[in-house]
Amino acid sequence: MGSETTGSIFRRLKMLSILAMSMAIMACQNFSAEQKYDWSATLSAPEEYPVQAYAGAIIAEGYQQSLAGFGDADDGWGNASGYVVMGPDTKNLPDRLQVSWHSFVDQKNYEGAWELPKDAIAQLFAEGFIDHTTKKKRTYTTFVIGLAPNGLVVVWLSGDGNQVEVAHFKAQETLVDIDYISDDSRPVFSKKYNDVVLSQLNDEFNTFERIRLGEYPSPDLYEQFRQRYLWRPVVALPEEYQLDSFVLHTYNGEVEITSSDNQDRLFDYQHRGLLKGFFFSWRNADNVNVATCWLEDFDQAEVMRAYANFSSADKVDLIVMGVGSPTISLALRGGDKEIEINTFKATIE
Fold it and tell me: What's this model's pTM, rounded to 2 decimal places?
């Protein structure tokens, strides 16, 4: 083989340079064409394990929102603790999360920084959902950042009542040098502030005595809530009636709202969390809504024991019987097993 001339080498380098520039331009075009959305972020924590974030942010290209300044988060697992209305109307979807927080019950501090699953988030935003009242397509508007004992972090997407988990992480316990804490966040580390929070918590939940007796919610409970089973609701209605819509609230913080316009989703087996609440309505042959039913106030331990009779691969039906009668009954049925759920409140309107 002959050696390359100086001219051929120069032409090859020039072609490579042009190719690299073209790829860079395409990348810039793809980035600039990235879909932007109107979103904000908030915090969540269990009622019986309140926390306060003293630093952190959810970060997107060209924008970040602070996660400090929400005060004490204690509205319940998956429930938002306030909302942010500042910032541009639309922005790139976030790809990073960092947060540091103080947990009052166990008197520990946690911190962590992670990459968010941006592709999965973008897909969920693009798919959106059908609003069950307007029948129009909507999408998510809020990142709910859940902070639980043992450093568990869960990220949900929320919009119009719908809520789905998109990521979870494990933060590390850390020691805090108060000299590096902002003046606004410094009070959270004072004994006086902690005593007030714990006193109020004890008044509401009898925290100290329940911890002494081993009856307080276990710190690893919120990780257990992430267990999913392959199940669906099955509502036994009289022949002249048809199920119209339902709302499922599960202990893992997810909320699923489905109408009769999405029959596949309505009756399909899905990998869902443990049942926490169930709302459904039904209509007659004339397509007139007849009534609605709320099933709530379940015994968490009973529900967990009932689902534990099945594997995550078993197809399980949540059978709702006696609708329209004075007594509604519930059972989980899969294979040759049927487990009754006895403790709940039923309201029909």
Answer: 0.88
